[in-house]
Design goal:
Blueprint: E1 4-11, E2 15-16, H1 26-41, E3 50-54, H2 66-73, E4 82-85, H3 91-104, E5 110-118, H4 126-133, H5 144-150, H6 157-167, H7 172-191, E6 202-203, E7 209-210, H8 221-225, E8 245-255, H9 256-261, E9 268-277, H10 286-298, E10 307-310, H11 315-325, H12 338-341, H13 345-363, E11 367-374, E12 378-386
Parallel strand pairs: 3-4, 3-5, 10-11
Antiparallel strand pairs: 1-8, 1-9, 2-8, 5-8, 6-7, 9-12, 11-12
Helix pairs in contact: 1-2, 3-13, 6-11, 10-11
């Protein structure tokens, strides 16, 4: 089967809610990484077959196929198309899958995959709120067919995170210790310059150059313990959840023929890609079954994987996944995760993969596995091999 290669990957620094990127138009946010990627790779932008970008809540500045708009805003060739996809939190990871599948099918040679999200400007689930304002019934739980199949029960990421904590016997204290480690790892990575190679700094309107992730905090277990849970008698607090933020990210996926023809130097190979569904009521348990499936399909074991990125939507999600698969914490999210660095929904997939690629190169690891929970009880898994 033809191979798919990652030629390069880049991201913006992650801006905290209301922070440095909050006023940036979503199309400009996406355009920034597209321009940076083309410049870094030296590829002729006119040869790109497609631009696939993940984005959720595609209203306002994110409406109207923002992937296409971002490409045009970047001043890149008109004839190159773009498409915006939504697999919830896994949107840009799925963009990588679609790009790789296009290359592996032999129908495309150069595809850009990425994602963008300005959560400061357009809050999570804003599309549902707007539709409700105009009298449209959008929540799937109001579907008679849905109720007939799953019952009239609450479906939310917060209730799922709580259910997971209870089922896997994960205490609030365990989650807060995990969250603290995320912040400490992220702050260490920033201090050591581990993200420098992957970040394309953004020059803000006032001339300030924004180049460092804003979300990691100096916190403590004592501070976390003082927060109120999101539900009465619950274990989930804001401290153990991912942060609302703004960012974009992108990578160039190429065929073997394109690598040879254009003199490109790939950094990694797509070793495996898959996506699985799980119980939508539990919603966030998808990475467990999806990772088992991916390892079985690829013939690899947990011990063969050098680095794991499991998105920190909530601490309970990652801790349950680690417990079920016996994945050691010292291999997981080694430079911090969504709790510390933020979870810019549409951009997170390629943000995580960009960081994982750079860390594999820094440490000399061979295989990296990435997964994340997604709305509807889904999970993507991608295994990349450093070259």
């Amino acid at each position: 089967m033809p191979e798919a290669f990652i030629v390069d990957a880049v991201r913006t620094p992650v801006g905290k809610r209301g922070g440095s990127l909050a006023a940036m138009h979503s199309a400009d946010l996406g355009a920034h990484v597209l321009s940076a990627l083309v410049e870094r790779t030296g590829v002729d932008a006119g040869l790109v077959d497609d631009v696939i970008m993940g984005c959720c809540d595609t209203i306002g500045s994110q409406a109207g196929d923002v992937a296409r708009t971002a490409w045009l805003v970047a001043g890149l060739p008109d004839h190159v198309p773009g498409v915006t996809i939504d697999r919830q939190c896994g949107s840009s990871q799925q963009a990588v899958h679609f790009a790789a599948q296009g290359v592996m099918s032999g129908t495309q040679d150069l595809v850009i995959a990425g994602g963008l999200q300005n959560m400061s400007a357009i809050p999570i689930s804003a599309a549902m709120l707007v539709a409700d304002q105009y009298g449209f019934t959008t929540p799937f739980a109001e579907s008679p067919g849905w109720v007939a199949r799953y019952g009239d029960v609450e479906v939310s990421q917060f209730s799922s995170a709580q259910m997971i904590a209870e089922k896997w016997d994960i205490s609030r204290q365990n989650m807060e210790a995990f969250a603290l480690a995320s912040h400490e790892r992220a702050r260490r990575a920033i201090a050591e310059g581990r993200f420098d190679n992957e970040i394309a700094p953004v020059t803000l309107p006032d001339g300030t150059v924004f180049s460092t992730d804003e979300c990691p905090r100096e916190t403590s277990l004592e501070k976390m313990a003082g927060l109120q849970p999101l539900a009465p008698e619950g274990r989930i607090t804001a401290a153990v959840a991912s942060q609302i933020c703004d960012a974009s990210s992108a990578m160039l996926i190429a065929s073997e023929a394109a690598v040879a023809e254009h003199g490109l130097t790939p950094r990694a190979r797509i070793h495996h890609l898959s996506v699985r569904g799980d119980d939508p009521i539990w919603m966030l348990t998808g990475p467990i079954a999806a990772t088992r499936h991916a390892l079985a399909k690829s013939g690899l074991a947990v011990s063969d994987i050098d680095l794991f990125e499991c998105n920190e939507a909530f601490a309970s999600v990652v801790l349950a996944w680690m417990k079920e698969l016996d994945v050691p914490h010292d291999k997981v999210n080694v430079n911090g995760g969504g709790i510390a660095l933020g979870h810019p929904i549409g951009a997170t997939g390629t943000r995580l993969m960009t960081t994982m690629l750079n860390e594999l190169e820094r440490t000399g690891g061979r295989f990296g596995l990435q997964t994340m929970c997604e709305g509807g009880g889904q999970a993507n898994v991608t295994i990349i091999e450093r070259l």
